[in-house]
Specification:
- The chain is of the alpha+beta class.
- About 20% of the residues lie in helices and about 25% in strands.
- The chain is built from 2 helices and 5 strands.
- The model is unreliable at about 5-10 (pLDDT under 50).
- This is DUF2794 domain-containing protein.
- Pfam families: DUF2794 (PF10984).
- InterPro entries: DUF2794 (IPR021252).
Amino acid sequence: MTFQSFSPIQVSGTPMQVAFHRTEMAVILSLYGRMVAAGEWRDYGISCLRDVAVFSIFRRTAENPLYRIEKRPKLRAKQGQYAVIGIDGQVLKRGHDLKPVLRVLERKLIRAVE
């Protein structure tokens, strides 16, 4: 019996798919956990494609995502590789660093106490 290890082939130095790094996922899941505890979000999905990695946030499983957190490495030198996109497709925030980009979603946690 022979075993072959599979590793994605890189073409001209670019990987076959884009993915979130462990440190990026820690920041995203920290925010996600706080929003779940607050009762705002209930489900998520992760897509790793050739040009983009997407973390989709849902209120319910069968809906369209409320927000999408996208990582597009090709935009690193221009507008920034991270973006938060709303349900209507509008870019809410874009930037080079993930934490400041996610602050637009943290504002949803702040509520007036009556």
